[in-house]
Structure formats: structure tokens, C-alpha cells
Amino acid sequence: MCADKNHEKPNIFKSVFTNKCARCRRGAIFLSKNPYDLKSCMKMPEKCPVCGQQVEVEVGFYYGTGYVSYALSIAICVASLIAWWLFVGFSIYDNSIYWWLGFNGMLLLGLQPILMRWSRTIWMAFFVRYDEDWHQGPPQGTGRVNTTFKGAI
Ligand SMILES: [Zn+2]
Fold this sequence. Notes:
Elements: H1 12-17, H2 65-87, H3 96-127
Helix pairs in contact: 2-3
Bound molecules: zinc ion.
The site of zinc ion has 8 residues, from loops.
């Protein structure tokens, strides 16, 4: 049944990492592939090019990405703090903490375009479930059939 590679369920982490649509996990949700193309890196198509899922699910949908971006930034700060502590070390007798602060600030600034795009992709994945049968919207007619009761109907 899953012999065709197109019917395999794409991995959620890989699809988030590569900024793919949460519904089909295949269509790109950003028009530009390059996050450092700063003029167009946040431009999104109206609909997913593969499944037709609305990319901006509702007006102001992506306002909540600030929370995701904050969490990602904190995770990077903690990771860089631990890495600095292990590879460089901290001491009260020198300015190593200030060097780390500068390094961490530059790191966050440099990663900002990537983090902003990941925040939107993660935010979309929170609210939009994977559905391989989703094509140009939900099936018309009687509405979605709950798979739990499929046999009973
Ligand atoms: Zn899609």
C-alpha cells in the first residue's frame, strides 16, 4: 500500500525543518527557498502548492509565532551557554561571560530569519493536522467521516 514513495507519511520534524505545509508535509509554505533573501524570505503563497491548504489559516494567524520564536531563542541561548561553558569555560576572573553574551547576541541575530520561518512552520503544525487525502479542501457533501465509525456506517 505504501510502496509508492508519494504515499509515505513524511516525517514531521523533517517537514518542519524544511518549512513544509503541515497538512501534506510536502508543499513549501514560503515562496523563497533562501531564508537570507531578506526582502522576500517571509512571503508566503495564499495556498499550499501541493494540497491547497490555506497557508494563512485565518486573519492574524501568525501573531502567535512570537511564543514559538521566544521558546526557540531560549533553547538556542541555553545550548550556546552549555557549549561555551564546555569548550571555552566561564570564570569570575575574566570577561568570558561578556564574550559569551556578545557571541550569543550575534548568533541569535544571525539565525533570526531561519527562526522566524521555523516559528511559522511550527505554529502551523500546532493547528493543522496531517491529512494525505486533503486535496483542495475537505471532501464535499456529507462532511468528514470520522474514521472510528467508518465500519459502522
Ligand atoms: Zn500542503
